[in-house]
């Protein structure tokens, strides 16, 4: 009995040692020489493998950082400035700070303001729907509501709101990786500067139809009336093909355009609540 | 104006559904079930009821309370598994065997993989093999219970024809001696077999079900034909070499669950290959493994194991046995 | 013995309920909406301006680029506007809107019903005439016919196949013209044979149209011995270009290839009729036969209808919108497009307006794949739709290409047979487009 136990232990030990040696020598023989810094940079990176940087994953990005001469054009949207600073520090380079961005959904035509004109009965996918036809409302530009953006998000930051039929971005979670921007076949989602304390103003519509057509399809469409452009003191608003666009670099967040917009297509986010427009008018009248 | 429906083409859809397909298989099993009720009476009814009820209940409970997914018990697939398993047990099995078998079949072989369509192995067979290795005595006791309709069947045998043959050969008897001693005859095998599981009493009833499935286009003939063909050829070769110690091909096909296995078990959609080429290969594999087990293995039957082994190769078969593509062989410039 | 293709196929109920409705002329509407994109390729360029008077059959838009086709006015009257209007899918397309005043045809069009059997044109003249009259393939894809009849250098056609299969359920427009315009079709086929320089031609007709086969055979035997009528099994998609070639001459078009690669050109019977009218009667393509049908419709009709008729007016011409109609399909139920805007207008290749009820058309709720392999059996291209669907959802583009997703002909057989109602074709169509884009972007060898 004891002999068997001793024999078993001895033979397994020897076998283990022999195999370990084989593994060791093969590992030595086939060792791939790689810049050790790539490993180190990779450990600094968040490891989300989202591809938001334009590389296939975090390791590829680390490799790119190490191989590149400068840090220009290299940015990890998930890690943001902190991580990029660390990477640059490690590699002994300097990095320019980037303004944090966030995904913004530029359609606010919910079920009430943009009624459905037909019923879609196919695979739940914006891409499939967009390749089939213009959409289930009269607006050819608006959100199709099948949730491709939600599926594309690795961070659980964009969710379809079943009540409005529109996606909503959780700006705490959003890393501005741009996956949803690519996923949206209607190109509704845009990456915009997050703004001071998250305050930002944008046109929540991309309808390029003439005012009447746009308005008929959706009550909250931008009708290209140019009122916002006229009221803007900073030249931040441009109008092309019946659609206003606010340049987030020029916008000073004065909110005049928001008040001016007759269809409420311009949205303000993270501003303190103010007295509704109607109430202001009433106060003025008195 | 009415809101029109808009969807990608095609705008028409076939009438078949998972439900209708499963229902057809259950209908195809009806003749066998009826014959078994005729021969085994309440015992067969009891097994079928316990099997179906347990299978459906287990699936429902798991979907409702454990995985909290959509409940799919009304697609008849669980009921079919329960029924198939009941037809694959010895007629005298106690009800609790059936219960355990159904729990294993649905709970382990089906639901752990993700429910209908996801399982790698045929659930009914997993249940049967589980019972076979766990309760070998009960599962090989093929004595016949008393029936309502029929008495005086040779209740003494208690073993399947194949195990009688296997034992006989081991004792040094020749095939003729075994046949004579046990009164085997082909007409008996076709209409009322000498011991065997509930569902395979009558080969004719099974073939009737097979024809129904073919007419309704529920299954393709490839798998059963390949299995039966392989068994015929394989056993035929040995029989021609030495008819003394190898049973003839027809005996091999009509006994030991080849028919019920090839028609109803091996053709299970989920666990069989997708292309016709693959189906044929899969069938040949089952035939060969069955015969290997029969001639040189410990078990007298063996098709259950053969099907389960081939189930494991299905993903591989699907990967390499692709259907013939249009335009691959260009017949002209 | 009827011929058929070698792989896959399905047998949907053919529902040819409008088969006995003779062709009638559809009343000319008050206003015509003529699309500039009635064909595959670049939209045509309008040559008229707002306020211009036009006659029926007058050229109003010229082909723009190599793959494009002329467009002619289908009515006489005044150009009301040239504007972007939604097509049946709601996408904006340039339209010429014409207010109808009377029905004055171009003088050059021979409006007599007499059959003109005398062929006086050379092959080159025939092709020019076809191009001038804006003929496009009426089998569905609307590919400009004159291009199809001019094979690229180095490629030669041996056969002209004419598709009279009409394998789509419900459709009967091809059947009606085969019965009512038999000889015109045969002359059209002969003209195309001359243009291509081929000696032999086959017209394939599915065997569920015995009258058409009989009548075609009768007339062909009387003076068109070079045209053979072939009876085909009733099986979808018998009329698919690749399937038809396989069925009739036994040649298989290679992957990514064209029929001309196996020495075949395929045209539709409707196209043959249009070619006859263009070459022998000088009549441009501005009207065609449209089946207006559906089980929910009180009556089934086949109309000869001007291009630019709105779907709305078609429905009202047959007694208004049936209560239980839930879906409008332009074309056949297997490959046609669902109409999302009834104010959109018909185009040259519109062959039917089909009204379906909820029960007929509603997709079931998607369930788990039970791996029944019915889609594999049904696929006429030998693909594995269940696998392509899975790969598509995982966006595995390389595997999709290895599994030949680009060979899919979008016939819809897989989705039709699927017992679990999995939207196979929806996902496959999308990944097919993706893979094709990648393949086409590669440098050519």
Explain this structure to me?
The complex is a heterotrimer of chains A (286), B (333) and C (445). The mean pLDDT of chain A is 88. Chain A has eleven helices and nine strands. Chain A has helices at 2-29, 36-44, 58-67, 80-91, 126-132, 148-152, 179-183, 211-217, 227-231, 256-260, 277-285; strands at residues 101-105, 118-120, 158-161, 166-169, 189-193, 200-203, 237-240, 243-246, 266-269. Chain A is α+β, with helices and mostly antiparallel strands and 286 residues long. In chain A, 36% of the residues lie in helices and 13% in strands. Chain A folds into two domains: 36-91, 3-methyladenine DNA Glycosylase II, Chain A, domain 3, CATH 1.10.15; 101-282, Alpha-Beta Plaits (2-Layer Sandwich), CATH 3.30.70. In chain A, a hairpin with a 4-residue loop joins strand 3 and strand 4 (166-169). Chain A has a two-stranded antiparallel ribbon with strand order 1-5. With 333 residues, chain B is an all-alpha fold. Chain B starts with a strand and ends in a 13-residue tail after the last helix. Chain C is an alpha/beta fold. Among the domains of chain C are: 123-281, Rossmann fold; 374-441, no CATH class. Chain C has helices at residues 123-132, 145-148, 173-180, 182-196, 210-223, 241-249, 269-281, 311-317, 358-361, 374-378, 385-393, 397-402, 413-417, 424-441; strands at residues 23-25, 31-35, 45-46, 53-54, 59-62, 71-72, 77-86, 92-100, 159-163, 200-206, 227-232, 264-268, 287-293, 301-306, 325-330, 337-338, 352-357. In chain C, the strands form four sheets. A six-stranded mixed sheet of chain C has the order 1-14-13-17-15-16, with helices on both faces. In chain C, strands 2-8-7-4 form a four-stranded antiparallel sheet, with no helix packed on it. Chain C has a four-stranded parallel sheet with strand order 11-10-9-12, with helices on both faces. Chain C is globular and about 65 Å long. Chain C starts with 22 loop residues before the first strand and ends with a helix. The interface between A and B is small, with 12 and 6 residues.
């Amino acid at each position: 009995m004891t002999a068997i136990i001793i024999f078993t232990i001895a033979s397994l030990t020897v076998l283990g040692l022999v195999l370990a040696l084989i593994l060791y020598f093969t590992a030595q023989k086939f060792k791939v020489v790689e810049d050790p810094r790539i490993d180190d940079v990779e450990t600094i990176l968040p490891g989300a493998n989202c591809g938001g940087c334009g590389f296939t994953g975090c390791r590829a990005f680390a490799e790119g950082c190490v191989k590149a001469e400068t840090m220009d054009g290299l940015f990890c949207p998930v890690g943001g400035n902190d991580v990029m600073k660390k990477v640059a520090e490690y590699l002994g380079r300097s990095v320019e700070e980037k303004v944090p961005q966030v995904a913004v959904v530029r359609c606010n035509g919910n079920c009430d303001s943009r009624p459905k004109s037909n019923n879609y009965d196919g695979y739940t996918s914006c891409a499939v729907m967009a390749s089939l036809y213009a959409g289930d409302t009269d607006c050819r530009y608006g959100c199709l509501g099948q949730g491709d953006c939600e599926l594309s998000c690795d961070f659980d930051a964009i969710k379809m709101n079943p009540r409005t039929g529109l996606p909503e971005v959780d700006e705490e979670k959003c890393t501005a990786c741009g996956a949803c921007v690519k996923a949206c076949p209607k190109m509704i989602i845009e990456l915009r500067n997050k703004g001071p304390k998250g305050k930002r103003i944008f046109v929540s519509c991309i309808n390029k139809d003439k005012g009447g057509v746009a308005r008929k399809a959706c009550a909250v469409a931008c009708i290209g009336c140019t009122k916002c452009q006229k009221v803007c003191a900073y030249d931040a608003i441009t109008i092309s093909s019946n659609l206003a666009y606010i340049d987030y670099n020029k916008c000073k967040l004065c909110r005049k355009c928001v008040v001016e917009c007759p269809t409420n297509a311009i949205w303000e986010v993270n501003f303190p609540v103010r007295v509704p427009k109607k109430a202001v008018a009433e106060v003025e009248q008195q | 104006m009415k809101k029109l429906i808009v969807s990608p083409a095609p705008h028409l859809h076939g009438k078949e559904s998972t439900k209708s397909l499963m229902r057809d298989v259950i209908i195809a099993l009806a003749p066998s079930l009826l014959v078994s009720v005729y021969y085994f009476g309440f015992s067969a009814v009891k097994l079928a009821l316990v099997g179906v009820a347990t299978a459906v209940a287990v699936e429902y409970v798991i979907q409702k309370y454990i995985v909290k997914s959509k409940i799919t018990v009304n697609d008849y697939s669980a009921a079919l598994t329960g029924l198939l398993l009941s037809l694959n047990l010895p007629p005298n099995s106690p009800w609790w065997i059936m219960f355990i078998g159904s729990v294993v079949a649905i709970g382990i072989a089906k639901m752990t993989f993700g429910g209908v369509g996801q399982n790698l192995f045929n659930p009914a067979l997993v249940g049967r093999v589980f019972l076979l290795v766990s309760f070998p005595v009960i599962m090989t006791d093929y004595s016949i219970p008393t029936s309502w309709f029929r008495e005086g069947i040779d209740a003494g045998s208690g073993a399947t024809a194949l195990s009688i043959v296997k034992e006989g050969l081991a004792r040094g008897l020749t095939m003729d001696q075994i046949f004579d001693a046990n009164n085997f005859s082909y007409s008996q095998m076709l209409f009322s077999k000498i011991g065997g599981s509930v569902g395979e009493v009558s080969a004719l009833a099974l073939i009737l079900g097979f024809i129904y499935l073919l007419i309704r286009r529920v299954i393709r003939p490839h798998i059963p034909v390949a299995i039966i063909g392989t068994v015929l050829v394989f056993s035929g070769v040995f029989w021609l070499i030495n008819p003394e110690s190898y049973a003839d091909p027809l005996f091999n096909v009509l006994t030991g669950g080849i028919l019920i296995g090839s028609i109803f078990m091996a053709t299970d959609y989920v666990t069989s290959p997708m292309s016709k080429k693959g189906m044929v290969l899969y069938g040949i594999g089952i035939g060969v493994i069955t015969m290997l087990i029969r001639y040189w293995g410990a078990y007298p039957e063996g098709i259950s194991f053969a099907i389960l082994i081939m189930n494991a190769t299905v993903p591989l078969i699907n990967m390499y046995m692709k259907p013939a593509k249009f335009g691959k062989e260009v017949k002209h410039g | 013995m009827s011929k058929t293709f070698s792989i896959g196929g399905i047998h949907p109920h053919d529902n040819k309920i409008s088969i006995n409705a003779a062709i009638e002329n559809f009343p000319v509407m008050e206003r015509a909406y003529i699309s500039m994109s009635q064909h595959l390729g670049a939209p045509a360029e309008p040559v008229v301006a707002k306020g211009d008077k036009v006659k029926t059959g007058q050229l109003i838009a010229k082909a723009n680029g190599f793959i494009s086709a002329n467009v002619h006015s289908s009515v006489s009257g005044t150009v009301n506007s040239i504007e972007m209007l939604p097509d049946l899918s709601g996408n904006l397309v340039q339209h010429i809107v014409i207010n109808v005043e009377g029905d004055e045809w171009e003088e050059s069009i021979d409006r007599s019903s007499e059959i003109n059997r005398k062929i006086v044109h050379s092959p080159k003249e025939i092709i020019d005439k076809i191009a001038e009259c804006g003929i496009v393939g009426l089998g569905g894809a609307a590919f400009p016919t004159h291009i199809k009849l001019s094979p690229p250098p180095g490629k030669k056609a041996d056969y002209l196949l004419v598709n009279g299969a009409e394998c789509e359920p419900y459709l009967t427009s091809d059947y009606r013209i085969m019965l009512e315009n038999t000889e015109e079709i045969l002359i059209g086929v002969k003209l195309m044979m001359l243009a291509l320089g081929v000696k032999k031609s086959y017209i394939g007709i599915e065997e569920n149209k015995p009258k058409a086969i009989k009548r075609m055979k009768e007339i062909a035997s009387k003076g068109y011995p070079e045209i053979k009528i072939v009876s085909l099994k009733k099986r979808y998609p018998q009329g698919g270009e690749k399937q038809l070639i396989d069925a009739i001459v036994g040649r298989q078009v290679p992957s990514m290839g064209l029929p001309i690669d196996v020495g075949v050109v395929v045209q539709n019977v409707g196209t043959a009729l249009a070619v006859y009218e263009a070459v022998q009667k000088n009549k441009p393509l501005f009207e065609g036969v449209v089946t207006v049908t559906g089980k929910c419709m009180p009556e089934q009709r086949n109309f000869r209808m001007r291009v630019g008729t709105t779907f709305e007016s078609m429905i009202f011409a047959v007694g208004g919108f049936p209560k239980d109609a839930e879906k409008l399909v332009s074309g056949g139920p297997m490959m046609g497009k669902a109409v999302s805007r009834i104010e959109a207008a018909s185009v040259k290749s519109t062959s039917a307006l089909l009204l379906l009820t909820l029960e007929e058309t509603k997709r079931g709720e998607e369930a788990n794949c039970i791996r029944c392999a019915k889609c594999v059996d049904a696929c006429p291209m030998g693909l594995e739709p269940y696998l392509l669907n899975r790969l598509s959802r995982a966006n595995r583009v390389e595997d999709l290409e290895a599994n030949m997703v680009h060979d899919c002909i979008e016939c819809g057989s897989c989705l039709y047979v699927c017992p679990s109602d999995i939207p196979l074709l929806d996902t496959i169509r999308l990944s097919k487009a993706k893979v094709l884009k990648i393949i086409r972007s590669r440098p050519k060898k």
